[in-house]
Amino acid sequence: MRRKLAAGNWKMNGLKASLTQIDALAKLCPTPDCDVLICPPATLLAAMAQECEGTAIKVGGQDCHVDPSGAHTGDIAATMLADAGATSVILGHSERRADHGEDNATVAAKAQTAWSAGLTAIICIGETLDDRDAGRTLDVVGGQLSGSVPDGATAENTVIAYEPVWAIGTGRTASTDQIAEVHDFIRAELEKRFEAKTGRRMRILYGGSVNPKNAVEIFETSNVDGGLVGGASLKATDFAQIINAAG
Ligand code: PGA
């Protein structure tokens, strides 16, 4: 009942020449059995949205400002992302939480701004290695979930991405037992907080060193509704295999 989502997060990678990846990906996966999203750097968003016309691939932003517009040099408004052709925006990625001091309240406020612009908020949560080693994983994830996801979240306007910080860009994927434990916990929390029907329909992605080799196993894990993929989304041939694994 939940259609899987393969979302690529290009982070601070990609120049105009990288747009050829879209054509390659569309040829490799002309009719994917899952939703496909790529979140390029903001400089490529409008051009990529154009490249994606007539394909099943959608584009998204990697962050937006809390305010709808104003004097915020260097920042991007949610309405600008939508205007450039984005359908979604990643919010509260651990790299933004670490590099830009974003806390749960900020992420929740950004999610509301994103919704107002008609964007789906992909809200990222996940524990550090210290948290996990100290046995605090579910406490931390639960706190981030309740603090970063505003009231009013629905299966249409929100996607949760569980990304253990220690698994991001490290090649060290969480085990399927670890993933299942956290995803089952997130599902139960969502069902408790929102109407059970909403909680059951909201998608929960796993992120952290997903690659063509481990994608099938991860996507078969309990309550995993797709992936948020960094490094392996940069090459069409790799991302295509991940999309096929989700379909
Ligand atoms: P990774 O990044 O796939 O390169 O580990 C995932 C993410 O940070 O979204």
Q: Approximately how much beta-strand content do the residues carry? A: 15-25%
Low-pLDDT runs of 5+ residues are none
- End-to-end gap: 13 Å
Instruction: Write out the distinct hetero groups bound to the structure.
Output: 2-phosphoglycolic acid
Write a structural description.
The chain is of the alpha/beta class. It has eleven helices and eight strands. The protein has helices at 20-28, 45-52, 78-83, 94-99, 104-116, 129-133, 137-148, 176-193, 196-201, 215-219, 236-246, and strands at 5-9, 35-39, 57-61, 86-91, 120-125, 158-162, 203-207, 226-229. Strands 1-2-3-4-5-6-7-8 form an eight-stranded parallel barrel, surrounded by five helices. Strand 2 (35-39), helix 2 (45-52) and strand 3 (57-61) form a beta-alpha-beta unit. The protein is globular. The structure holds 2-phosphoglycolic acid. 2-phosphoglycolic acid binds next to strand 8. Residues 9, 163, 168-169, 207-210, 228-232 line the site of 2-phosphoglycolic acid.
